[in-house]
Amino acid sequence: MGILKIDTFHAIMLNIVISLVTVSFALLFRGFTEAFYANFHIVLNLLSGSLIGAYLGANFASKIDKTRLNHSIFILLVFLSFILFSHIFFEYKNSYLPPLYVQLFLGFILGIAIGAISSLLGVAGGELLIPAIILLYGMDIKTAGTLSLAISLPTLLMGIYQYNKNEKLKEIFGFKEIMVFMAIGSILGAFLGVLLFGVVDDIYLELLLGTILLISAYKLFNKSKKI
């Protein structure tokens, strides 16, 4: 898949390991503010669902055939790209907060969906978590970003645990050099991301990432037709 010519399933597992490294260091570089501790219940609410979703997503990816997996990934890539493009036209703000029981219920359901997507794509899920935290709980974008990292970390660990339990994780041990170089790059990227927060307009980054996801989806679609 892509420049490295790695098949879709192995690319997912490489992604999830690298995402874990990125999230860990991003959380370390950002640090924890009073706002983070004051709103830790949001982490617990979304995490209660995302752990279940990550478990289900990893099981699904481990057991289906390559064609169905490629089709599923294609749909998710297109979906995420449009979510990112929507940020250009829609500013995520919420002046109305739903009742606590609604927040808890929707947080749990959204958590399951985001956790499943995280395990299926091997991503942290911040592009979904941040808007969810802003819209559902009324958080500012900086606090939402830190909270999303705290949710992503155990969610990714659950995905990795389940892939390992299904004896799939060992299949990427042959890509150790790639993992090391990508991990180093992700750590540098996490550090730069913290430095550039508020300096570079998020819209440009989201436009770039959305375009990359669409290109990846197109390549995956062409690859699926050849299987």
Number of domains: 1
Q: Mean pLDDT, rounded to whole units?
A: 86
Given as residue ranges, the uncertain stretches (5+ residues, pLDDT < 50) are: none
Q: Tell me the strand percentage band.
A: under 5%
Cα Rg: 17 Å
Give the helices and strands as they follow along the chain: HHHHHHHHH
The DSSP helix count reads 9
General form:
globular
Largest sheet: none
Q: Helical content, roughly?
A: over 70%
N→C terminal distance: 13 Å
The total strand number stands at 0
Q: Based on helices, strands and strand pairing, what is the structural class?
A: mainly alpha
Give the SSE layout.
Elements: H1 8-30, H2 34-38, H3 40-63, H4 66-89, H5 100-121, H6 126-137, H7 141-165, H8 176-196, H9 202-226
Structure description:
The structure is a single chain. This protein has one domain. It has 227 residues and is mostly helical. It contains nine helices and no strands.
Which properties best describe this structure?
globular, about 230 residues, 9 helices
Concise overview:
With 227 residues, this protein is mostly helical.
